[in-house]
Design a protein that fits this description.
Blueprint (H helix, E strand, L loop, with lengths): L1 H50 L7 H5 L23 H15 L6 E7 L6 H10 L5 E4 L1 H4 L3 H9 L3 E4 L12 H19 L5 E2 L8 H9 L3 E3 L3 E2 L8 H11 L5 E5 L3 H16 L3 E3 L1 H7 L9 E2 L4
Parallel strand pairs: 1-2, 1-7, 1-8, 2-3, 4-5, 5-9, 6-7
Bound molecules: zinc ion.
Length: about 300
């Protein structure tokens, strides 16, 4: 019995010592771990704010950047890389491709379509697309919402979307505040549909004044008239409209048309291929000015590229 008690005591003692040792080991491990975590946690802050300040760029090093190898021109530079086509990329490529095909030394004209978008606009776009050409659309703001897809289609085809006021008001007969609202609201809805603000406006019936010029300047738009009036708004036959244009057309003309009449649609079915046959390149108003070395300035008015 006594021996047993002694043995039990020894076992208890050794157990106790073992437990204490284990406990000490665990505590020391914990202390080491906590210390490591603390040190690691503070390191970046210490380095960032005190020990190594943000290196000041050395001018000498900046002046001699790593030489970037000049890319060898592709053997066939006509072939563009084809990344995943997004509408934006397609448009950029389409424009780049078309612009590179425009010869500034050859005749060019800009067809402009006023008073849309409307029920004939999509068919106008079909004809433009069929001949791989573009035009400029002076749109009425309050009609854009109903024809968003058409306006976006025109824009993505590379045509230009420009401002023809919100509700086709005679701008010379309304207040400066109303002129501003007519133009601002239209530019806003064009931007909401295409993502781009228009760079030119055309006053309805060509009725302008000093306020129109000043407000157009404030809204970053040039004022665009025309040099050849198709008079398609008069009740004339498509043949007569066609003849009057073909008789008068000159290099760098801006041609006034309306995408609101069926007769205009019938006219351009013949007019566009025949203008191309006569050697005219069909471009947007902005392109016409660009290739004519005319800088479009906001608030200034233009009627041709000569
Ligand atoms: Zn108009």
């Amino acid at each position: 019995m006594h021996q047993n008690t002694q043995r039990t005591n020894i076992i208890k003692k050794s157990l106790y010592i073992t437990l204490v040792l284990i406990l000490l080991a665990v505590i020391s491990l914990l202390i080491v771990s906590i210390f490591q975590v603390l040190v690691r946690g503070y390191e970046p802050a210490v380095i960032d704010s005190h020990i190594t300040p943000t290196p000041t760029p050395i001018p000498a090093l900046m002046a001699t950047p790593k030489p970037v190898p000049t890319p060898e021109p592709a053997p066939d530079s006509g072939v563009l890389p084809t990344p995943e086509p997004t509408p934006e990329v397609l448009q950029t490529f389409g424009l780049a491709d078309r612009k590179s095909r425009i010869d500034p030394t050859l005749p060019m004209v800009a067809l402009t379509f006023d008073d849309g978008p409307g029920r004939f606009t999509n068919q106008v776009l079909d004809i433009l697309e069929q001949h791989d050409v573009v035009a400029t659309f002076y749109v009425i703001g309050e009609q854009v919402g109903r024809y968003k897809d058409t306006v976006l289609r025109a824009f993505e085809m590379g045509s230009e979307i420009a401002n023809h006021t919100w509700s086709h008001r005679a701008l010379n007969r309304i207040s400066a505040e109303s002129i501003y609202q007519q133009l601002k609201d239209t530019s806003d809805i064009i931007e909401s549909v295409t993502g781009a603000l228009p760079t030119s406006m055309r006053p309805p019936w060509g009725l302008s004044n000093a306020n129109v010029l000043r407000i157009s300047k404030d809204l970053n738009m040039s004022v665009l008239f025309w040099s050849l009036d198709s008079s398609d708004y008069l009740n004339r036959s498509p043949d007569r409209i066609y003849d009057s244009i073909m008789e008068e057309v000159k290099d760098k003309d801006i041609i006034l048309l309306h995408d609101t009449y069926e007769r205009t649609l019938e006219t351009i079915e013949r007019l566009i291929p025949d203008l191309i046959d006569r050697g005219f390149q069909l471009v947007t108003v902005s392109e016409l000015m660009y290739f004519s070395d005319i800088e479009l300035e906001p608030g200034k008015s233009y009627s041709h590229g000569r």
